[in-house]
Amino acid sequence: MQKQLGHYLRKRRGEMTLPAFARKLGVSSSSLHRMEMGEQNVTLTTLERLLKRLKCSASDVFDK
């Protein structure tokens, strides 16, 4: 699940810089980097906040 979240975040960030995307999501750049690499565990609260700020649902991220 961490890898799926990481892949989704990298895809959504596109050409945006890591610090700019981190600000948009309300997380630190280092946390976002670890999430994108699939190395950061996220709490359900954090996941909910990310999904809300990205205006998407868990099924968009974890499709399978």
How is this structure best summarized?
This protein has 64 residues and is mainly alpha-helical. The protein has five helices and no strands. The model has no long low-confidence stretch (mean pLDDT 93).
Question: What is this structure's SSE topology?
Answer:
Layout lengths: L1 H12 L4 H8 L3 H8 L7 H11 L3 H4 L3
Give your account of this protein's structure.
The protein has 64 residues and is mostly helical. Helices cover 67% and strands 0% of the residues. The protein contains 5 helices and no strands. It has helices spanning 2-13, 18-25, 29-36, 44-54, 58-61. Helix 1 (2-13) crosses helix 3 and helix 2 (18-25) packs across helix 3 (29-36). It is globular. The chain starts with a helix and ends with a helix. The mean pLDDT is 93.
Kindly list the characteristics that best describe this protein.
single chain; 64 residues; mainly alpha; 5 helices; 0% strand; globular
Helix content: 55-70%
Query: Which radius of gyration do the C-alpha atoms yield?
Result: 10 Å
Report the count of strand segments: 0
Sketch the topology as an H/E string, one letter per element.
Answer: HHHHH
Q: Distance between the terminal alpha carbons, to the nearest Å?
A: 10 Å
Residue-averaged pLDDT: 93
Low-confidence stretches: none
Structural class: mainly alpha
Q: Please give the largest β-sheet.
A: none
Tally of helical segments: 5
**Which strand-content bin applies to the residues?**
under 5%
**Overall spatial form:** globular
